[in-house]
């Protein structure tokens, strides 16, 4: 049995696809999500084999979402959408398949055969992923999109990952690894990434470590391990 996650902002579409997947007898449902942030959490927790992913969703669309998945948890992606003009882009993003709504049983059966082969062989999708220009952050019952240009640095602790701007900080479900590779932030410490454009000065210490002072006056630690790379990025 393959573990499947359904991601679609429309309740009817989620329930309809769930019924179709159950009819095949090939899937156990890892969950149903109404938006990209819910899906990222589920993927990390449940590690599904395949994600049936809608493209047009509010706030963060399907194409943006695949660029936010940690490489360690990348499932096979099948795009499901009502718009066939996205087909070419779907395959450019290395989707395994593309289903047009309303999904037909015969067409789904072909997808299932491809999936069984891929899962049986242990294959996974490899995504280059689009550059992340807006970071989805959780604020109460809202999702705030923070422009990467407004971020001074990113920090992680036992509570999670936070993007820090001059006026405050916001929790995000994206990992440091994803933000480092797809948002052009530079790692300066095991638990910190910095936006090079926010660096005001670097204070060097005798133990070969350092601190960054951002343009808003915040201090960010720099470990010896990452100091050289940071200097190279700054051209010093």
- Specify the CATH architecture of the largest domain: 3-Layer(aba) Sandwich
Roughly how much helix do the residues carry, as a percent range? 25-40%
Most strands sheet:
7 strands, antiparallel
The third-level CATH topology of the largest domain is Rossmann fold
Shape by Cα distribution: elongated
Beta-strand percent range = 25-35%
Mean pLDDT: 89
Task: Give Rg in angstroms.
Answer: 20 Å
- Determine the number of helices (DSSP H or I, runs of at least 4 residues): 7
Please report the distance between the alpha carbons of the first and last residues. 55 Å
CATH class label of the largest domain? Alpha Beta
| Series of secondary-structure elements, N-terminal to C-terminal | EHEHEHEHEHEEEEEHEEEEEH
**Count of folded domains:** 2
- Per DSSP E runs of 2 or more residues, the count of β-strands stands at 15
> CATH homologous superfamily name of the largest domain?
Response regulator
User: In what order do the strands lie side by side in the largest sheet?
Assistant: 7-6-10-9-8-12-11
